[in-house]
Amino acid sequence: MKIDIGIPEKQRVKVAEGLSHLLADSYTLYLKTHKFHWNVTGPMFQTLHLMFETQYTELSTAVDLIAERIRALGSFAPGSYAEFGKLSSIKEAEGVPKAEDMIRQLVEGQEAVVRTARKIFPVAEKAGDEATADLLTQRIQLHEKTAWMLRSLLEK
User: Fold this and answer.
1) What confidence tens digit (pLDDT) does each residue in 33-91 have?
2) Distances (CA, A) of 23 to 16, 63, 92, 116, 146
């Protein structure tokens, strides 16, 4: 059935393409954060284990919201490791880094998601897609706050 939500198809496709990159970044960050939750060691174990759990749980919800927005725009959401690997700007973690390196990598990942979300914003605004703009605003706010909290752990 034809979609008639007040956004032309070409613009919906462009927004969905941008959201696919955001979905890939968010899912890759989810996997990295979950891996670090499982494998963190050291004197900050309890703090980081719980913090990482909170973060990957939030990301789990976020990927669903992003994928559902892609679907509402009439496109299919990517959902395989191969697709995410092509679309994501975040590199997978190799091995098990030390706790401080985990924190650094997660700061970089949170900031990467923010940059990706910001790239989509003008496309969504041009399309008059307030729902996507709202989703992007919420994602940017959350990832900036999370990056700040993680960076705070690295201060001496």
Assistant:
1) 999 999 999 999 999 999 999 999 999 999 999 999 999 999 999 999 999 999 999 99
2) 10, 6, 15, 10, 17
Cα 9 from Cα 15, distance rounded (Å): 10
What does the chain come to in residues?
156
Q: Residue 106 is inside which H or E element, if any?
A: helix 99-127
The number of C-alpha atoms within 13 Å of 26 and in the hemisphere containing its C-beta is 28
Q: Which CATH number fits domain 12-92+101-153: 3.40.640.10, 1.20.1260.10, 3.30.360.10, 3.40.50.720?
A: 1.20.1260.10
What amino acid is encoded at 2 in this protein?
A: K
